[in-house]
Amino acid sequence: MLNDLVGNIRAASGIDGWLLRLAGFAGDDAQIPRVVKMALVKDAADLRAQLLQWAELASLNRILVSHGDPIDIEPRRALRDLRASLN
Is the pLDDT of residue 51 over 70? Predict the structure, then answer.
């Protein structure tokens, strides 16, 4: 389910890029798009706890997402940042 929650589209340009950035799918960092938060996040506290639990996995090397590039640089930090975005 994490792959559907996270947007990590970095090379978005033109009108499509503008729309993707506006919706929160594109940007400088991985993020949980606003529309996804509204549609899929039913319990933000539970999701924050789950993201932190995954961030503590020492073996975590990469996060594959449906919307954008894999997160393979500091994936544990990315999960902590995503967690903070749910506050």
Answer: yes
